Amino acid sequence: RADALYALCDMQNDYPLQEGVRFSRGYMTEAEQNIWQAQAREKYKKLGMPAVSCPVPAGGKSEHQLGTAVDVQLTGQLNMNEKNPLKRNETGRWLWENMWRYGFVYDDDFDGCEAIHLRYVGRGHARMMHLLNMNHEEYLSFLQQNKTVTLMHGETMIACVLCVTEGEETVLLPQGMRREISRDNRGNIILYC
User: Fold this and answer.
1) Could you say which DSSP state residue 65 is in?
2) How many angstroms separate the CA atoms of 94 and 19, rounded?
3) Bridge partners (DSSP) listed for residue 120
4) Are 118 and 72 spatial neighbours (Cβ–Cβ below 8 Å)?
């Protein structure tokens, strides 16, 4: 998607991500995803692990088909004693500390089967997840349970996120309030205002 690509370019311009990192995958067709899944499962088999436990999804079930994901591989001198793969070199640490400013999040389910998977969720949602110290799955569950999150500065509302079950409610928003609407694949509509 164009917004994800622009955010990636902004991140590149702010910190020259040329050394220590390689962007390996962005948008992929369903056929390309299926080939990648087969290769990953073969890799699992060679490691003596059940192929079905490989987390690479089939074509049509990946964020890569949405154009909202990018895979990153750290290069150069890596500290393999570091558990978090994004903290294994200077560039990865910078990404870890700053990617949310550009709308990207990372869930720590890295297991070596795929590169480090960054997901574009938009700057507003990434900021909320960063402030709440939640990964994507925790954030969606929190929204589904609580229905609203409001970010305040003193008595001024900075942002509000609403989770509405599709078809159940009508939401009235103040006139002129900017909003982004997305779905969470759980039957909810998420409004970032």
Assistant:
1) G
2) 12
3) 104
4) yes
Token output for 7: 């955010």
pTM for this entry: 0.81
Read off the tokens for 39.
């290769």
Going 132 to 138 to 139 to 141, the CA torsion angle's sign is negative
Cβ partners under 8 Å of residue 115, min gap 6: 24, 25, 71, 72, 73
pLDDT at 104 over 60: yes
| CA 158 distance to own-chain centroid | 22
CA atoms within 13 A on the CB side of 47: 15
How many whole angstroms separate alpha carbon 113 and alpha carbon 71?
12
| Dihedral of alpha carbons 109, 59, 127, 143, sign | negative
Check residue 49 and give its pLDDT. Answer: 84
In sign, the C-alpha dihedral spanning 91, 93, 98, 99 is: positive
Most confident of 77-86, 163-172, 182-191: 77-86
Interaxial angle between packed helices 90-98 and 2-14, expressed in degrees from 0 to 180 and rounded to the nearest 10: 130
Q: At what angle do helices 123-132 and 136-146 cross, to 10 degrees?
A: 90
